[in-house]
Each structure stands twice: as C-alpha cells, then as structure tokens.
Amino acid sequence: MSVIWTMIAKRLGLGLLTLFIISLIIFGATELLPGDLAKSILGQSATPETVAAFRRELGLDLPAHTRYLNWLFGALQGDFGTSLANKRPISDLIATRLGNTLFLALYAAAISVPLSLTLGVLAALYRNSIFDRAVNALALTSISFPEFFVAYILIFVLAQSGLFPSMAQVDARTGFAEMLYRTFLPALTLTLVVTAHMMRMTRAAIINLLASPYIEMARLKGIKPMRVILRHALPNALAPIITVVALNLAYLITGVVVVEVVFVYPGLGQLMVDSVAKRDFPVVQAVALIFAAAYVLLNLTADVLSTLSNPRLVHRK
Amino acid sequence: MFNSHNDGGLSRRGLLKGATALSASALILPAGMRSAAAAEPKKGGTLRIAITGGSTTDSLDPATWSELFVQVFAACRVNYLTEIAADGSLVGELAESWEASADAATWRFKIRSGVTFHSGKSLTPEDVVASINHHRGEDSKSAAKPIVEQITNIEIDGENVVFTLTAGNADFPFVMSDYHLAILPSADGKIDATSGDGTGGYIIDSWEAGVNAKVKRNPNYWKEGRAHFDAIELYSILDSAARQNALITGEVDVIDKVDTNTVGLLSRAPGIKILATTGTQHFVFPMDYRAAPFSDNNVRLALKYALDREEMVEKILGGYGAVGNDHPIGPGDQFFAADLEQHAYDPDKAKFHLKEAGMDSLNVQLSAADAAFAGAVDAAVLFSEKAAAAGINIEVVREPNDAYWDNVWMKKPFCASYWGGRPTPDWMFTTAYAAGVPWNESFWDNGRFNELLLSARSELDFAKRKDMYHEMQMICQKEGSTITPMFASYVMAHSDKVATPDVVATNWGLDGFRCVERWWFA
C-alpha cells in the first residue's frame, strides 16, 4: 500500500505547483484582456475622472506584480479577498454557488454513471445487435447536439407540459426533494451530454478484453456470457473506465455554464463568466483555482482507483 | 423667486399637455388588450419578474448602477427627489415642491416630512445632501458624476435643500429624478451606500447578486395608492429564450426585453400579453466630425440619405420602433419638431451630396458589435447593402462585444452606439451633442447649436424654448455628425393576471422601472 501513499503525496505536491502556475497564467490572461474593472463596470458612461477614482479606490493603479503578490500572500493565508465589484467576501460569493455546482454535478453523475456503465456492459454483451446499434446511435446523437439545444428540447417537451419547472431556481431554503425536482431538467441535459463518452468507453474496454485467451478459457468452461463480462472482463477493464468517468465528472463541475444560463441555475460557471466580463480578478482567480483543483483531485482519484484495481501495480516488487 | 409650478414656462400643466400626446403616440398596443387595466388597483400577491442585465458583480451602491436588474431592484427600495410620472410629467417624490430663482441657477427643494427609512430613521435634509454628494467630488466613481457636476453648492435651509448651479438650468428638477440619485440614510454627512436601506415601497428580504432579489412590502410606505404587491421576486435571466419559457410555463409573471424575432410566437401563447412602449431609447451611428471624410457635411448628408430607415425598423426592430430623423429627440417629446422634413432613403440625393463633396464614390469602414445594441451588426450590413446603390461602399467591421465601449466606441471614426435616452432635450443634447463633453461620441462642434443650448437651458418661457429646440433639432439633422436611424421600443410581456395602468411610462422599460409600485394583480 505504501506505493499508493507515496503516489498521493507526490501528486498532491505537484497539484499545488500546478495550481500556482495556473494562478500565474490566469493573472497574466486577465492582464492581457482589454480594459479593466473600472471601465467594464462604467461601460458607456465611463469618464476619465470616474475611471481614475475607481482605480485609486481598488488599488488598480498599482503595478501588476504588486497586485499579484498582494493577492498571493492573502491566498496563502487562506484569505481570497473580496470581490472588487461589490466588496463581498469571495468565500461568501463562492460558497453557495460551489454547493449548487457540486449538487448538480453529483446529481447528473448519479444518473449518468450507472446508466452509462449498464448500457456499456449490455452493449458489449449484445454487441452488433440491434440493441447495441440503437444505444450507440442514441448516445452519439445526444452528444452531437449542443447542450443548449438539448436543453430547449427538454424544456419544450417536459416543461411546457408542466411536468417539470423550466427554471431551476434554488436557494438555501429549498428542501432536498424540492432541489431534486427543480434541477431534474438540467441534470437530465447533462446526463444526455456525458453518457455517450462513458458508455462507449465501457463498451470498447470490455470488447477489447473479450478476445483475450483467459476469457476464451472462461467461455470454453461454459460460464454464462453475462458472468464472463461482469466477473472476468469488467475488473480488468476498470482502469480506462475510471479515467473516463473522472474526466466527465470534472467536466460536469467546470463546463456547464450554458446549462446554467438556460435553466437559470446559480452555479459557479455564471459567476466565472460575469467576473471575467467585469475583469473582477480575485473572483476569476478563486473560481479558476477551484476548477483546476477539481481536475487535479479527480485525476488523482482516478489514478489511485486504477492502481488499486490492478494488483500488479499495488504489489510491485 | 417664483414657484415654478405656477409659471407658464415650466408649469406642470404645460408638461402634462406634451406628455399626454407622448403617451398616446407611444403606446403600441394591439386592440382589446387594455381591458384588464381599467379596474381599480388591488393589493396582494407575489409578483415575479424575470429581468435581463443582472450580474454577480452587481452592487447596492447607486454610483455603480447601470443595468436593468439593479434599476428595478432600486425602484423597489428607494425614492428620489422627483419622479417622472407615467405620462412623462415631473412630480415630486421625496421633494414636496420646488422653486427656482429667476435665472434658474438656484433651486430650492422642500423635503417631504414624515417619511421614514426601512430602519425606522426619519428622512432629513441632511440625508438628501449626503446622497447627492455621494456622486460629486474628486473621489466620485459615479456614472452620474457628469450630471451633478453643474452643482456648485448644496445648502440646508430648514426643511429645504438649496442647490446652486454653475449656470441656469430650467430642467434641473428632471435631473434629480435620475436613477442614480437615490436618497439613502446618512450619518455624519456620509451615506452607507451598500446598506440596502431606503424609503421605498419594499424592504429587502434576500438578495443574491446575479441570481435573484426578494423584497416584501414596506408597511409604513408613505406613498398613497402605490406598492400593491405583498412581495416581489426579481429573477436575473440572461437568456431571452429562458425568459420567454419562464413566462410561458408560469414561473414568472412579467418579463422584460422580449426578443423581437420571436415576439409573434410569444403573443400567440395563451394568457400572455405583449406590452411595447416607444420613448427616448434610440440607436445611432456616430461619425468622427474631426476626421476626413466625415468632416465634410456633404459626406455626412450623403450617408444620412443612404440608409433605409423604414426597413431597419421593420427588420432590426421587428416593427417595434419608430424611424429617427438624425436628431435624438423622440416623436413623443413635447419639443419634438414634427414639421421637420423626414430623412428617407434616397440614393440620388446621396449621390448628389457626394458630388458636392467632390467624390464619385466613398469608401468607409463601419464598426459594429451587438454590445452597441441588439442587431447592430445586422443593421450595419443593411446600411451597407442599401448604400451601395449610391456609390458608397461601407465595409462592416464586426468588433468583439467585450470591451466595445473601451476600444471601439469614440475610438473608431464610424461605429454603432445607443442611447437609453434622457427625459429632456437639454439633458440629451448636453450629454452627447454639446462641444467638448465627455460623451460627445461624434466630437461634433457647432457654434450656433452650442449657443442655442446654453440660452435654451436657462430659458423659462415655454414657447421661446420650443423654438430654440426646433432649431437645434434642425441643425442636428442637417449638419450633425450622428446618424439616428431609429427609436426602439421597450418590448415587455406579462401574464394576463397582472394588470397595468392605462398609461405606462415610456422613459425606461418596465414602466420606467416603476412596475413594482404601479402595477397590480387583477
């Protein structure tokens, strides 16, 4: 097991380095964007005097490296600062939205992961049958449409008939069952978008193994096809499946802004877009780091799980 | 000193006359749609409005307000010294009455007594002074700074607040209705700009920037016959299809900014009414007056004759608007010069003016992005197509929406822009047409125009003022450096459960932001 612990420690260390580099890149990128917060907030009504007053108050007139170091020292002490635009602490701004984003991601994952694994296994079992072809065609169709189109179709079919709400408005007072009901359509949209990738990967990984001699052996012994796949093929196909699931989970956390906009769901994506548009640098940094951390942690989890699923890697000589 | 209410020049009746004409012409309503409105307002219910323009970066500080969401949210919570009534006339809000000195350079506002803030604090003249001072001075970062710059001194005299201006301004009480100039509670001469307190009809219940705002009725609201709802929920919905869906599925009762491409579909949905008002909002193509070829008035005139305004209103606005006549005064304004010849598409005239300028053909670049106004790029392409017949080659440059006001507007010589409009001609001209002002987007400088602007501003005689404004509109039209092809309507929609008054304000969308206190559930 020590292999695992060393790996986790190493990867976490590298993850921190990654986050630091990302914060530098994000800062550089926001610096490269034309205009700054003062001009973006005032828009058409900006005058040189008001822009100057804005910059003085927010310290935007300081040189870039000073601003970055100020932010970095704060962040190292766990203080991500306040939003430049509305002076609210960033931790407050992000807390509920992060909760919402994670809720929706987990909800969509809870539907899509079992669904795609089941469909993938079944498609491998009945490969090249009508069922296999139909599942593949459906999954590829739903992934090929842009998310907003899938969302509008679902609204047209399921919301305009009154079955589900078209607006996923939730707040701290919304109960759990009510949350599940109100966010069903966005979760379903995301499910349709991510299922194909995981399903196809499961199917491919299993079919790959079905040609192996040990599977042949199992079959010759007369084991039922379903048992061959679940007991013998699946455990060996886990590594690529876990990786693709982790990748899709990371996508569910970081890439759903379009779904958020269509369903009016208050998640991190919209916060990120608004903050970039207004050049609210501390908020952009904080959200970008959360997204980066999600990728780092999920990839790490995937690697740990893949390693665990392979005894040859765990018990290395 | 005289009381401006009783003076011929600026009487409320005089304003009312013009304004009634405005409301009659401005309301575009399909027949049979006003039936629910005749009833008396009823109290109760929770109004849910879906509004565009909300952002997670929104602030409660009035200095930063610029988009519809915060504007309507503000209309729930705060009051101003004056209010533009639905018919376009000016009425007192926290100012009970006001009077001007003979040169209109000193204004005395009597502050209403017995008004309390949500916190229980009584409104005092000190609050008014601190609230206006919030936008003045060296450190002001307020979008309203340019309009309060004319104030040199603010004094308290008993129940009155006295403003001294740099020069006479007959429209000063209108300035005090500007949506930034909210009256907030003060302590030691400073307001707490982000407390959310106010004297308005509703009290903040919860607010999540960029998501929603919930307010409940202020039981001690001083205004009679206003603020009928028990509670109001404002939802920020950026996507126009999502707004329409929310209305159709009954998630909200009112939506703003209906997409004019799909308004026909929406109007056929059961239980939904479309409401459109044409006021001061207009779209423009300013040309840089300082640089060739636009420094030649013949070139400017050629361009003015080279675009088809009717077609633009039809195709860009979906018919929800009115043609412009190359000046910023809307057809509903009491000072509108109706007898001015309407500029129309005329390639021959455009060619003639090109010849006068000594050219056979003209090549220009027109920068546009939808950040300027919805459909700006399409409008520029239409312009280009039609202008070709007159030998004018317009190359449409599609600019990024991001930082459009920063990098394109007033930087490129010919671009698209918009004005939400101002309630008075003086305000509009002073903001964007007077020589040397920061938002003079065409850098236009016309001696006669500037002279008239100054004399009209302090002129309290209505007829004389009207003549001056007519001449100014004519100068804008014939010599101005801004093409004004169209006035765009505010297009909203609401469920038939919501009742609106017979006259709906046209100065801004959603009944001049005041739907929250003027509308009710039928």
Please tell me about this protein's structure.
The complex is a heterodimer of chains A (317) and B (522). Helix content of chain A is 78%, strand content 0%. By secondary structure, chain A is mainly alpha-helical. Chain A has 2 domains: 41 residues, no CATH class; 225 residues, MetI-like fold, CATH 1.10.3720. Helices cover 28% and strands 22% of the residues of chain B. In chain B, strands 1, 2, 11, 12, 13, 14, 15, 16, 19 and 20 form a 10-stranded mixed β-sheet that branches. The radius of gyration of chain B is 23 Å and the shape is globular. Classes of the chains: A mainly alpha (317), B alpha+beta (522).
Describe the structure in brief.
By secondary structure, chain A is mainly alpha-helical. Chain A has 15 helices and no strands. In chain A, helix 5 packs antiparallel against helix 6 (130-144).
Blueprint (SSEs and pairs):
The complex is a heterodimer of chains A (317) and B (522).
Chain A: H1 2-32, H2 37-42, H3 48-58, H4 64-76, H5 90-125, H6 130-144, H7 147-159, H8 176-182, H9 184-210, H10 213-220, H11 225-254, H12 257-263, H13 268-278, H14 281-308, H15 311-314
Helix pairs in contact in A: 1-14, 5-6, 5-9, 5-11, 6-9, 7-9, 7-12, 9-11, 11-14, 12-13, 13-14
Chain B: H1 12-26, E1 27-28, E2 46-51, H2 68-77, E3 82-84, E4 90-92, E5 95-100, E6 106-111, H3 125-133, H4 145-148, E7 151-157, E8 160-165, H5 172-175, E9 186-187, E10 190-191, E11 202-208, E12 212-217, E13 231-236, H6 240-248, E14 254-255, H7 263-268, E15 272-286, H8 297-305, H9 309-315, E16 321-323, H10 347-356, E17 362-368, H11 376-387, E18 392-398, H12 404-407, E19 417-419, H13 425-432, H14 447-457, H15 462-479, E20 482-495, E21 498-499, H16 509-512, H17 515-518, E22 520-521
Parallel strand pairs in B: 2-13, 2-14, 17-18
Antiparallel strand pairs in B: 1-15, 3-4, 5-6, 6-8, 7-8, 9-10, 11-12, 12-13, 14-20, 15-19, 15-20, 16-20, 21-22
